[in-house]
Amino acid sequence: MSEVDQASFIKQLETIMIKEKIEDNIVIATLANGKTNPFTVEILKQIDEVVKKVNEDETLKGIVLTGEGRFFSSGFHLPMFLGFKNHDEAVDFFLHEEEVLINFLTCKKPVVSAINGHCAAAGLIFSMAADYRIAKFHEKIKIGMSEIKIGLALSIAQNEVMRFGLDTDKKYRDVMYFGKMMGVHQAKEMGIIDEVVNDDEELIRRAKEIVCLWIDTPNRPFINMKALLKKDTVERIRKNLAEGVWKEALHCFFKDDVRATLEFVQATMGG
């Protein structure tokens, strides 16, 4: 391998933030981006590619999304938010993020979130966009949505995904307004997750089991059922995005108090 080819190969490896493998015709997509697996533009692109692959390949049954290490995901990469140069740049990012989230929400095949560790903010949003959520038990694992405490409102698609996943206005209120991080059993009681298992091996095994249970039926009626279930939510998201009012909220990223809070949170996470 020439020096140029080697440098290109190393650069390619550095940008692979989702590790993919196929087990039993199911894509196991593992978030692998440093210690806390934050969502970046590159991770969003790679998630979109996984969804497209699963939608187009009839042999693939679905997706299991999980994380590497002690985190599922801490949320969006905060330096990315702090690095927005202007309002237009923030709008461009969220236009892309919203489209990826919609595509993930509407993946034709079953999507199971296998929560292996701490799960917050965008990590929880993408988990709620999955069709089923399973968490590994560990007394230190925390799950929740603390955006309200750092001064950030959710985007249109993010908000609708949380409303859809939490099922009732009361659950939405209790999870979103209090912004509390909670253990896995309390998260199950709150309706955030569907099952709790004991270890990583059981986590992936059970996630694959759910995918197969739902898709391995004559004529795969799951695909049409899921599309109909998500139809109203997706139409509402697209309508509200088209109206454009949501863009005004993105000025928050340039407010001194919000930026100071984001910088503090990032510092406590070791970045």
Low-confidence stretches: 6-14
**CATH homologous superfamily, by name?**
2-enoyl-CoA Hydratase, Chain A, domain 1
In DSSP terms (H or I, runs of 4 or more residues), the helix count works out at 12
Given the C-alpha coordinates, what overall shape results? globular
Beta content: 15-25%
Number of strands: 10
The CATH architecture can be given as Alpha-Beta Complex
Can you give the mean pLDDT? 93
> How many structural domains can be distinguished in the coordinates?
1
Reported for the largest beta sheet, the result is: 6 strands, mixed
Structural class by secondary-structure content? alpha/beta
Strand order of the largest sheet: 1-2-3-5-7-10
The name CATH uses for the topology is: 2-enoyl-CoA Hydratase, Chain A, domain 1
Broad CATH class? Alpha Beta
Helices and strands, in order, run as HEEHEEHHEEHEEHHHEHEHHH
Structure description:
The protein is of the alpha/beta class and 271 residues long. The strands form two sheets. It has a six-stranded mixed β-sheet with strand order 1-2-3-5-7-10, with helices on both faces. It has twelve helices and ten strands. Mean pLDDT is 93; it is low at 6-14. It has a single domain, classed as 2-enoyl-CoA Hydratase, Chain A, domain 1 (Alpha-Beta Complex).
